[in-house]
Amino acid sequence: MSPVGRSTELETLRALLAGALAGSGAAAVVTGEAGIGKTTLVEAVARESAAGGCPVLVGRAAPDEGAPAFWPWHRLLAQAHRDGVAGSDPGRDGVAGLDPALLAPTAEPDPTPAARFLAIEATVLALRAAAEPAGLVLVLEDLQWADAASLDLLRHLCGEVSGSRILVLGTVREPADGLAGRAGNTPADLYGLADRGRLAPGAIGDVVIFDEDTIASRPTESRADLPAGAVRLYAEADGVERVLVAGQEIVADGRFTGALPGRVLRSGKDTRTPSLN
Prior knowledge:
The chain has seven helices and twelve strands. 30% of the residues lie in helices and 19% in strands. It has two domains: 7-174, Rossmann fold, CATH 3.40.50; 202-277, no CATH class. Strands 1-4-3-2 form a four-stranded parallel sheet, sandwiched between helices. The chain has a four-stranded antiparallel sheet with strand order 5-10-11-12, with no helix packed on it. The protein has a two-stranded antiparallel sheet with strand order 6-9. By secondary structure, the protein is an alpha/beta fold. The model is unreliable at 88-95 (pLDDT under 50). The chain has helices at 7-21, 38-51, 71-83, 113-130, 148-158, 178-183, 185-190, and strands at 26-32, 56-60, 136-141, 166-173, 207-210, 216-217, 221-223, 232-234, 237-238, 240-245, 248-252, 255-256. Helix 1 (7-21) packs parallel to helix 2 (38-51) and helix 4 packs across helix 5.
């Protein structure tokens, strides 16, 4: 059964799935208040994927503070192991394919940054291998409760999905600050962007001024303007009145000013380093 009233969102996720199966991996996060249908939407795409022969793995974060690091990933990898979803390349320290043992080095009381990084890298490589040739859909539910280590792995994977057959689908319960949070601090925190995503002293002056009553997305279209001709999804927006980047106005009264003050953000330089907590 398809989600009621979510045809645009469903078609967008279907397009991302088709692109991933064709070798242009992608990631998407579905946000919204509790009960709005985030899981129903993601499950609809997951069912279609599984029906087409593409494996689907699911992990869910827990609100319990006692949950171990990488908990949603442990659950996802445990399912992969049970279902026999495994890549052809060996993982870290001889661990073959997808298995929770990939993250075993991080179970030590005080894992070193190097041990955590190697475990994350090994997991990402194993996931990429497992996605060949049928594809792989990873569903991560309730990311608002995910621990820092789980988000570190997610950020690393999102930086490596290009050129893979992986589609990552996450759900996040809408924060208390509503639409502003969904457009600002939620994605900034998810991708580990430092000094961005919220108005605060010392933060970068990136500001979007919009009308919450009229803000809307126009129809989604494909544009093949990424490196090597890769395809991305694009949609114009209504209701956006002004946009400032680094304090300089690039949109005024809904029109581009022609100013280009932005710059490319670099991992490690403009992002937070992995946390050991």
